[in-house]
Amino acid sequence: MWKNKDNGYEYNYSLYITKPYRDKRDRYILVISIVILFFLILIVKQSLDMINRKNAYTLYLKQAVQAEQEQKRQEEQKKQEEARKQEEYKKMKMPKLTEEGKQNLENIYHSETKKAFLTFDDGPSSNTSAILDILKQENIPATFFVIGNAVEVHPELVKRAYEEGHYIANHGYSHIYSKVYSSPEMPLEEFNRCNELVQNAIGVPEYNSHLFRFPGGLVGGKYADLKQEAKQILNDNDILNIDWNCLTGDAETRFPTEEKLMNGLIETSEGKNSIVVLMHDAQEKTATVDTLPKVINYLREQGYEFKNFYEIIK
User: Fold this and answer.
1) Is 108 a member of any domain?
2) In 3-state terms, what secondary structure has residue 219?
3) Residue 10, Cβ neighbours under 10 Å: how many?
4) Does 32 share its domain with 115?
5) Residues 86 and 109 in one domain
6) Mind listing the pLDDT tens digit for each residue in 223-277?
7) Within the chain, what is the greatest distance between any pair of CA atoms?
8) Residues 110 and 252 in one domain
9) Distance CA 90, CA 87 (A)
10) DSSP state string for 93-139
11) Number of H helices and number of E strands within the chain?
12) What is the CA radius of gyration of the chain?
């Protein structure tokens, strides 16, 4: 349709756009708008999801770092606690000779209660391993008077005995009487040499048992006078000595029977409340190993409580 505009003519197209066409156009625009809005919403949602994922990942990383730091802190705390316990255990197993300890040793055979100190001389050897197995099974503490030249051969057994709570005492280095008693000073030298080997075996440089057993015992024999001089020298160096008041007799014959060993134990323990039992864990003393369970059972039946020299030297 033409219409006058300032004395001219202009064709008005809108007059020819019908209502159906307008409706169709509006619907098309609406659809396009909805699609655009959908994609906008989708883009916004994806952006938000990406932001949330990023935030979640950042939080995860933060938590992971915190967890790792906490784990390290707990591990470090655990290490410190273990080190503290080891140090306490080490101190507990470190003999410290005091006046109380000296008095305890002097009165060791005088007790109102029944106590048994199982002691083994002349080791370590392969028999020591079997003896340790029995003691562990029976939960019995013992004392080992080790010889230095045997410690050189089996340091691992000394370490095991020490770590399992047994008292590592000193029986000198050589156990050869002509060497040990060549002078009053020689027992101290034998002690020191053996003690150094024990220190190396157990990994404790400051270890000192403060306890010596003279080869053959302190009393009697052709070296009796020299031993008394040596005893004083040892005492002056804070080293005590102990013999025994009970024994199985496993050193009296080379191949003793279990019956003989048990008879020796029964006879020498009779009427005594506190007994220091002499046995041997040298290589040939298999009878001692075989008889040890019976020794333990008998002493238990008699009411003895088993101790080692940690009970004395403290």
Assistant:
1) yes
2) coil
3) 11
4) no
5) no
6) 999 999 999 999 999 999 999 999 999 999 888 999 999 999 999 999 999 999 9
7) 159
8) yes
9) 5
10) TS----HHHHHHHHTTT--SS-EEEEEEES--SHHHHHHHHHHHHHT
11) 10, 10
12) 44
**Any domain includes 232:** yes
- Relative to beta strand 240-241, strand 2-4 is unpaired
Cα–Cα distance list, 186 to 146, 173, 191, 231, 261 (Å): 17, 10, 8, 11, 33
- Asked whether residue 312 is domain-assigned, the answer is no
124 upstream amide cis, omega within 30 of 0: yes
The span from the CA of 90 to the CA of 83, in Å, is 10
Q: Is 18 helix (H, G, I), strand (E, B) or coil?
A: coil
DSSP 221: S
Token pair listed for 181: 């008693």
Q: How far apart are the first and last CA of the chain?
A: 126
Question: Percentage of the chain surpassing pLDDT 70?
Answer: 93
d(CA 33, CA 306): 96
Q: 44, 75, 92: which is the final residue of a domain?
A: 92
Q: Kindly report, residue by residue over 152-167, the tens digit of the pLDDT.
A: 999 999 999 999 999 9
Residue 241 and residue 214 in contact, taking contact as beta carbons nearer than 8 Å = yes
Residue 289 lies inside a defined structural domain of this protein:
yes
User: How far apart, in whole angstroms, are the C-alpha atoms of residue 124 and residue 253?
Assistant: 20
CATH of the domain at 240: 3.20.20.370
| Beta-strand relationship, 2-4 and 9-11 | antiparallel
Q: Which of 72, 92, 112 represents a domain boundary (last residue)?
A: 92
Query: Torsions phi, psi of 115, nearest 5?
Result: -130, 140
Q: Are residues 32 and 126 in the same domain?
A: no
Residues 149-165: b if buried by 16+ CB within 10 A, e if exposed: ebbeebbebbbbbbeeb
Q: Which domain holds residue 174?
A: 99-307
Number of domains in the chain: 2
